[in-house]
């Protein structure tokens, strides 16, 4: 399987969602975060778009969202997030297990995703993810195996304050199992707002001395 080609295609699709300004319906606004949706072309469900501002540079925000080591410390929707196969410095396979949500009506899911960071002109970065088959992590009876159609983050400098970043998040997740679409539609917008708020809190904690980490990848991002 040509994982790199799949990753590049997913990044291109996320870019196309970002550039598409038509047909979005605002489904939630909260704490300066806007969530919109439209019917997905990939499955019988929705493509969601969540937008917010993060008080951090684009390079550092992209690195923070891309790295696996501390994701579960701030992303409250996940209980497992770890790299299972490295392809190159910008591409890896990740196994994820979610927490239950919607007051337990949606049980934990697991995913195997191909994650890729791509750098564009204007200091814009896209972190894409798409579910793939990986023989070392087949579906198990412990969790329903979900499927992420091309999803990801677009990080770019805020025009009025380049020291801050505009974060646009795209999600089109096929939960599978016996779930009604209405349950997902009711819970997903709030979950996306919570994710951006948690990311804000997480990157703030990451900047404190107790949350200090190596800046190795930061320097790599800045050199590219």
Automatic annotation (TrEMBL):
<comment type="function">
    <text>May be involved in the intracellular transport of sterols or other lipids. May bind cholesterol or other sterols.</text>
</comment>
<feature type="domain" description="START">
    <location>
        <begin position="20"/>
        <end position="208"/>
    </location>
</feature>
<keyword id="KW-0446">Lipid-binding</keyword>
<dbReference type="InterPro" id="IPR023393">
    <property type="entry name" value="START-like_dom_sf"/>
</dbReference>
<dbReference type="GO" id="GO:0008289">
    <property type="term" value="F:lipid binding"/>
</dbReference>
<dbReference type="InterPro" id="IPR043556">
    <property type="entry name" value="StARD5/6"/>
</dbReference>
<protein>
    <submittedName>
        <fullName>StAR-related lipid transfer protein 6</fullName>
    </submittedName>
</protein>
<dbReference type="GO" id="GO:0006869">
    <property type="term" value="P:lipid transport"/>
</dbReference>
<keyword id="KW-0813">Transport</keyword>
<dbReference type="Pfam" id="PF01852">
    <property type="entry name" value="START"/>
</dbReference>
<keyword id="KW-0445">Lipid transport</keyword>
<dbReference type="InterPro" id="IPR002913">
    <property type="entry name" value="START_lipid-bd_dom"/>
</dbReference>
């Amino acid at each position: 399987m040509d994982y790199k080609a799949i990753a590049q295609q997913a990044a291109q699709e996320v870019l196309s969602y970002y550039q598409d300004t038509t047909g979005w319906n605002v489904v939630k606004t909260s704490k300066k975060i806007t969530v919109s949706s439209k019917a997905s072309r990939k499955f019988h469900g929705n493509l969601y778009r969540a937008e917010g501002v993060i008080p951090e540079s684009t390079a550092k925000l992209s690195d923070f969202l891309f790295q696996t080591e501390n994701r579960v410390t701030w992303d409250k929707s996940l209980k497992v997030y770890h790299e299972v196969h490295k392809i190159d410095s910008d591409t890896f396979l990740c196994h994820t297990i979610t927490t239950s949500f919607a007051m337990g009506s949606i049980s934990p899911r697991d995913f195997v995703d191909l994650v890729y960071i791509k750098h564009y002109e204007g200091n814009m970065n896209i972190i894409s993810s798409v579910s793939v088959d990986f023989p070392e992590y087949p579906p198990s009876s412990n969790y329903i195996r979900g499927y992420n159609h091309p999803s990801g983050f677009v990080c770019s400098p805020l025009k009025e304050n380049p020291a801050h970043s505009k974060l646009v998040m795209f999600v089109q997740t096929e939960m599978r199992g016996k779930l009604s679409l209405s349950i997902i539609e009711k819970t997903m917008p709030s979950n996306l707002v919570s994710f951006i708020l948690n990311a804000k809190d997480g990157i703030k904690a990451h900047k404190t001395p107790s949350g200090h980490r190596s800046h190795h990848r930061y320097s790599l991002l800045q050199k590219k």
